[in-house]
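--- STAGE predict ---
source: upstream dedup step, 1 unique chain passed
mode: sequence only
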Amino acid sequence: MSDHSANALGEQEEVLPGGNMGGATRVGATVRRPAGAWSPTIQRLLRHLRERGVTWVPQPLGSDEHGRDVVSYLPGIVPQYPLPDWIWREDVLTEAGVYLADLHGASASFDTVSGVWRFPVRQPAEVICHNDFAPYNMVFTDRRLTGVIDWDTASPGPRSWDLAYLAYRLVPLADPDNGDAIDSDLDQRARRLRMLCDAYGSGQDPAHILHVAVHRLHDLAAFTEARADQGQEGIRHHVGLYQRDARWITAHADQLHG
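--- STAGE serialize ---
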């Protein structure tokens, strides 16, 4: 359940679910979160994307009287775990791939020279990666994908870095004992991985995406462990989960890329 409070102007503030990188709050038709050195770059990125037709990202609105980063609120349903059954429909999978490709295509021309990023730049820096392009950051209306939120961790990187994480979450590329995954066999997951790569386009090879997914999960495990060491003990159990999923991908890579 969300917490509610009123700000100095009497506007109702609602703490939004998710957003484990730092408190997102809804105020009317806006979303506000603590700003950082990266905030002006992310505001400029969102403006760039919208100017190039990616209208399903939040509108950048600068900062508020408290110095918080402000973007427009995207109405709809943002699924949280345990995910609803309809998230695993094939049209959701392919739509997500198309949206990610559109994002990457529009971001390729973004001027990164003066950019400040919360997450590291990864080479080859082909596009701007969302870095958390997953169902819990997607907005749905009538079970159709209509938006993607939580852009503060975006940074330059390879297309495959984002696509591999989306595949991990939505194919899924996870040990069957992972309670966040759908119950499906290797053939089904291989087919869904191919469908996602085809929907994204740009000649993405499932075998390469599997390789990147393993790297991505080990990186995520290390990042999560560091956050746990800094006091966020509630997420420490995810470290072993990510490592186990990485081992599962490695063990089944031949079957998964067909």
